[in-house]
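1st attempt posting a full record on here, be nice pls
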Amino acid sequence: MEDAYLIKGGKKLSGEIILSGAKNVALKIIIASLMYDQEVILKNIPRINDVLELIGLIKSLGAKAEFTETNTLIVDGRRLDNNKVDFLHSSKIRVSFMMFAPLIYRFGICYVPNPGGCRIGARPIDRIIEGMKSLGVDIQYDSDTGYYKAVAGDRLTGYYNFPKSSHTGTELLIMISVFCKEKVVIDNAALEPEIDELILFLNQGGAKIRRDGKKIIILPCKELRRQEPFEIISDRNEAITYACLALATKGDVFISSLPYKALDIFVKKVKEIGGGVKYIEKTNTFYFFYQGALKSSNIETAPYPGFMTDWQPNWAVLMTQSEKESIIHERVFENRFLYVEELRKLGAQIDFIKIPVKNPAEYFFFNFDPNKKYNQAIRIKGKQLLHGGALNITDLRAGATLAIAALIAEGESVVSGASILERGYENFVEKVKKLGGEIKKV
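the predicted structure (as tokens):
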């Protein structure tokens, strides 16, 4: 057997987790580093599969990207000598689509295929394409080749208002706008803290970007240069995984290091269900602990500052251990419940339900099609005794969900598709073992 975890569950897990660098920051800043006119040193870069795939993509285009220490990466975009991203690399990692920014900067013209990544929904890129066009980029799609061709206009400038905020779209338009000829304004921009980290990284190099609520203003910049290494913040999605794992096994965990604001909405929900939380400000450490029977919950996902869509699969497993029925209503992606059928293999009682929505086109953040049937809400029965089983990982966050479920369940489980989980989790086996979990890769 290959690419699987063998897990023996049913134990209370306790201990300490030191978080890895944030995947959703590292990937974007690695790409943004290609726009600097020098070598850039990045610290706290997680050695996860998505980062390794991105490094392979960058090298295939002639640029430099290599680890010099365990979590220190050097990137040099001056060596880029190819303006066409190949299908092989693009199919493996969705962030390949953001290569538009450095390739347009270096060559003025580039070719990028439709991106890959987790299949958690259609994840339409039409808003991003329209945004690029509004800034003066001539971009066309060739259905015969599967490639987008992008040509920089004479004057990158303009205004774009996202009809629905887009995390990835906001980041890409920021990067494309760094070397604009005149002011660029991005309206209804996403609010995620990962975006603010990208802005910080670019501003430290000489960019002129400021945020005014959901509006981002970019002024012209001639070049990007920096003297000091840039350290990536810790991964708040990873923090949620280990917090849910500890609470679901009636254990406890210290998690460092993150500012309180990074998890404030999650902490609020944990307190509402009766979970224990303390925050040690001096060390930016969260302490999550089981302190009695967990109450049920009703969760709606939403972009920041709402309850993140990446968190809800882990929360679903936690709610199998609550006292009563819980509801999760997914608003961000239309295919985020692929893990439900897998959890049922462990004995989880989870049903799809319909929740009436007055204006679904406005309520949901994806492009809602009134002629399509959606399963956007689940009801989870509480007080469940899960048992072992054979599971298959379908996407990154679902992978962590299935591993948590197997660690809760009595008996042994085999969780196939470990490499998908390892796209976003560094040293997952070692960290679970540190908490007392019985897990090994086979």
